[in-house]
Write a structure and sequence with these properties.
Layout: H1 17-30, H2 36-48, H3 52-57, H4 65-79, H5 84-88, E1 90-93, E2 96-99, H6 112-122, H7 127-132, E3 141-145, H8 151-159, E4 164-169, H9 172-184, E5 191-195, E6 210-215, H10 230-235, H11 238-241, H12 251-261, E7 262-271, H13 277-284, E8 290-297, E9 303-310
Parallel strand pairs: 3-4, 3-6, 4-5, 6-7
Antiparallel strand pairs: 1-2, 7-9, 8-9
Bound molecules: S-adenosylmethionine.
């Protein structure tokens, strides 16, 4: 549908890249869509199959009626609340372009801190690894709990080409997206996708100890649902967002399973929900189980990642 207020191509009115972008920005801004400029650009890039550099290098490029129709249909859907990433089917994470669908949470920039913390805590390649020419992470066994799009599992598999990564999710539909993303980035042979509750599929017997567990679990309380932005509440999968009434349903069982499955010296890295720190930190302070507990804040100064080493 071309919104009636927008001039149709061929009607003798401007219908080029610049004017389409300006009109889209105007509409998105008027509808109070956050980051309206970026949304207008991304949706036009998606419609035309071009990058931003092309867009700004060809402001006078005429658009066909079908391109305008497709573009303004996306703009209207964005105004109606559909997140830009579900309209383009893409989101970047850790420099990797990932497919996203409404079956998976849209990976957030702050979740990249989990990758940073995990890599920092694993440390640089050992002298022996470098001498022997072994790939980084040689022999490591990693689990990503609640993998969604596969963002964490795939980022770690790319950074640690010697590691095997087990990525779990309760949602078969999410795992199908993660599988396509793992293929797209050439790590499908080392990212093993498992449909199960938390780490149940790895809980054995036999148990093969893990070196690293990362997780960005669901952590929104059902009672907070009304406070979520409309885009999130209406479009992102409830299974990826909610963790019981309080938002804390998953931390205790996850940490208990991690204590069981990590080798001595293994590392746990979890993302914290808003206000989750006072609940999660005591779970790691059980005597004799965890050491070197560290808190990492995100760029907004919010406590975001808790990590610890198995005694
Ligand atoms: C907050 S999302 C995180 C997705 C992805 N790791 C990311 O950071 O973008 C949580 C994920 O956990 C999955 N999940 C929910 N309950 C689960 C459970 N009991 N066991 C395993 N995964 C679960 C959801 O389907 C969702 O994909």
């Amino acid at each position: 549908m071309i919104p009636s207020a927008f001039p149709a191509a061929g009607a003798g009115l401007p219908a080029d890249v610049r004017s389409a972008l300006r009109e889209a920005m105007r509409r998105l801004r008027a509808a109070a869509v956050p980051s309206h400029t970026l949304a207008a650009e991304l949706l036009l890039m998606h419609t035309l199959g071009c990058d931003r550099a092309w867009l700004y290098a060809h402001p006078e490029q005429p658009l066909e009626a079908s391109q305008l129709a497709a573009y303004f249909e996306l703009v209207e859907r964005r105004i109606a609340g559909v997140p830009t990433q579900y309209l383009t089917g893409r989101q970047e994470f850790w420099g990797l372009e990932l497919e996203v669908t409404p079956d998976v949470l849209i990976p957030r920039p702050e979740t990249e801190h989990l990758v940073e913390v995990a890599l920092e805590r694993l440390g640089p390649p050992t002298w022996e690894e470098e001498e022997a020419g072994l790939p980084r992470g040689h022999g490591l066994r990693i689990a990503d709990v609640g993998t969604g799009s596969g963002c964490l599992a795939i980022a770690l598999a790319c950074e640690l080409p010697g590691a095997q990564v087990f990525a779990t999710d309760i949602s078969a539909a999410a795992l199908a997206v993660a599988r396509r993303n793992a293929c797209r980035h050439g790590v499908a042979g080392r990212v093993h996708l498992l449909q199960c509750n938390l780490l149940d599929a790895l809980a054995g017997p036999p148990v093969w100890p893990l070196d690293l567990i990362v997780s960005n679990p669901p952590y929104v309380g059902r009672r907070e649902a009304d406070h979520l932005p409309r885009e999130v509440r209406a479009h992102e999968p409830a299974q990826a967002l909610f963790a019981g009434e309080s938002g804390q349903q998953f931390y205790a069982p996850l940490i208990a399973q991690a204590a069981h499955l990590l080798r001595s010296g293994g590392i746990l890295v979890v993302e914290l929900g808003y206000d989750a720190l006072p609940h999660v930190q005591p779970l790691l302070e059980a005597e004799g189980v965890w050491q070197q507990i560290r808190l990492t804040h995100d760029l907004a100064g919010i406590p975001r990642v808790l990590s610890a080493r198995r005694v």
